[in-house]
Amino acid sequence: MRLIAVCQLLLFRSRVQGRSAATTETLTAPKPDLKIFAGSSNLTLADAICNNIGIDPGKLTITAFPDGETFAKIEENVRGEDVYVVQSTCPPTNHHLMELFIIMDALKRASADRITAVLPYYGYARQDRKDQPRVPITAKLVANLLVAAGANRILTMDLHAQQIQGFFDIPVDHLYASPVIFAYLKYTKRDNQVVVSPDVGGLKMAHAYSEMLGADLAIVAKRRTSATDTESVGIIGEIEGKNALLVDDLTETAGTLVNAAAILKERGALSVRACVSHTILNDLGIDRLKNSCIDELITTDTVPRPEIEGLNINTLSVAGLLGEAIQRIHNNSSVNSLFRFKGARTT
Q1: Coil, helix or strand for 196?
Q2: What pLDDT, on a 0 to 100 scale, did the predictor assign at position 229?
Q3: Are residue 194 and residue 231 in the same domain, yes or no?
Q4: 81 in a domain, yes or no?
Q5: CATH number of the domain bearing residue 291
Q6: Does residue 240 share a domain with residue 229?
Q7: How does residue 343 score in pLDDT terms, banded at 50, 70 and 90?
Q8: What angle do the packed helices 138-149 and 93-109 form, to 10 degrees?
C-alpha cells in the first residue's frame, strides 16, 4: 500500500510539473512575425510601406489563366503569422476586389494567425444606402465579402461615408490623410484663406481643415443632374477677396470640383486650390481639370496615377501613416494619436 501511495504521489508531481512547463511555454511563445503582401493595384505604395517599416514585401505570385481567372500563390510560410494585405480597390475595381479575396483565401488556408486587409481606398463606398427603390447597398456587400474571404481586421483611409465602419463585425481602423496633407498645406499656406466644402456631405472634413489652418469656412450647395454632372447653385460663407481651398475625399470625373471652383471665382475668390484624398481621374475628369480655374490639385498616393501633362498635381505619400498604423496594430498599441494633430482630432 505504501508503494502504491508513493507511485501516486510521483505521478501527481509529474503531472503538475508538466502543466507548469506547458504554461511557461505558452507564456513565452514567440510573437507572430509581421508580414506584408501586396496585390497588384498599388505596388508602389505597398513597397513604400514596407520600406517605412523596414521589412521586405512578402513573396506572392499572382497570375491569370487564359480565361481571365486570377491565381495567387503565397511563396513563403505564413503559418501563425500576423499578415497584412495591401490592396486599393481602384479601377478596375472588380478585378482588384476579386484578387484581394483570392489572396486572403490563400493566406487563410495557409494558416495565417491574423489577416488584416489594408484598403488605402475602399471602393463602392458611395453605394452605402438605398437612395432609390430596388437598388443594392454594395458597400455592405463588399464588407460581407471581405470577412467571408478571411479578413480579421480592416485598415482603411478616408471612407466616403464613415458609417461604413458599422457594416463590419470585425475591428476597423479608419485613418485620415489630413495630417499628411496639413504638413504640406502649412508650408504653402496663403493669406486670407477660406476652406470650402464642395457639397454639404463634405462639411465635416472641411470644418476639420479650417480649424487646423485657422481659416474661414464656406459651403457650396450643389445639385446632381447625372452620374457625371453636377450643378453648383449657391454659396454659404464669405468668398470675395479670399484664397479658396476646396477639400473633398474623392474625385473621378471632377464635375463637383470644377463647378465649385467656377462659382467661387464668380463670387470673387482670388485663387482656388483643391485638396482631395483619393484622385481617381478618368479622361473626362482630366479634361475638366485642365480647362478649369483650379490652380493646384493636392492629393495622395492611395491610388496609383500616371503623370498628367498640363495639370498641376502634387501627390503626397501616406506610406508613413499606414506603416505606423500597421506597426501599432501588430504590437497591439493604440492608434488614437494617428487621428490627432497638435492635440486636436483631424476630423
Answers
A1: strand
A2: 57
A3: yes
A4: yes
A5: 3.40.50.2020
A6: yes
A7: very low
A8: 30
Which residues span the domain enclosing 212? 179-316
The Cα 241–Cα 326 span in angstroms is 44
Look at residue 345 and tell me whether its pLDDT is greater than 60: no
The percent of residues above 70 in pLDDT, for the chain, comes to: 85
8 A C-beta contact, residue 58 and residue 37: yes
Within-domain flag for 8: no
User: Phi then psi for 13, rounded to 5 degrees?
Assistant: -65, -40
SS3 for 217? strand
Distances (CA, A) of 13 to 17, 27, 160: 6, 21, 61
The catalytic residue positions are: 222
CA angle 326, 327, 329 (to 5 degrees): 65
Determine the 3-state secondary structure of 127 from DSSP. coil
AA identity, residue 209: Y
Taken in order 330, 331, 332, 338, the sign of the CA dihedral is negative
- In terms of domains, do 161 and 196 share one? no
Split into its structural domains, the chain has a count of 2
